[in-house]
Amino acid sequence: MPDSNNTIAAQQWRHADPFIISWTVSPEQIDHYQHANNVAYVSQLEQTSWAHSNALGLTIEQYKTIDRGMAISRHEINYLAAAYLNDVIDCATWIVECDGRLKLARHFEFIRRSDGVSLLTARTEFVCIALSSGRPKRMPEIFADIYGRASITV
Asked: 118 near 110, Cβ under 8 Å?
């Protein structure tokens, strides 16, 4: 997580107490319109989710050991403004739902650090699956506990 002096002021985020990582837009993420391609944003959603899960104490190694994972079932992405080469973007996420059984949802907001412009808001829904089969399976207790405690009320 970046130093708080280098991130967007707390009052600008859509929810309190965001988990934040930073992203600097690189040349390979620029498309023929000269802004960050939507694929780069989707990739950053995934990186932000994993960074948050890791910070909460859940790693891919644990997922593999217990044969469970949280797979994306739905993305809703609102592209609000363009990001450009070398923009530094603060990427925030919050767990907004965890039913403790099968489903989890996150909100995201990406804000350009230089001017405080919100570039993206998103909601991603996940379903717990057995990694070995890809089929929905009940969330293990460790997921329900950790993700449930991290969930905020919106």
From this structure: yes
Chain-centroid distance of CA 38 in Å reads 15
Residues across the chain: 154
Q: How far apart are CA 36 and CA 78, in angstroms?
A: 14
Is the separation of the CB atoms in 131 and 61 below 8 Å?
A: no
Q: Provide the greatest CA pair distance for the chain.
A: 46
pLDDT tens column, 32-60: 999 999 999 999 999 999 999 999 999 99
Is 77 buried (19+), middle (13-18) or exposed (0-12) by CB count in 10 A? middle
- Rounded to the nearest 10 degrees, the angle between the axes of helix 141-150 and helix 38-56 is 110
Alpha-carbon radius of gyration of the chain: 16
Q: Give the whole-angstrom CA distance, residue 71 versus residue 25.
A: 26
* The residue type at 68: R
* pTM of the predicted structure, to 2 decimals: 0.91
Which of 113, 45, 125 minimizes the C-alpha distance to 84? 113
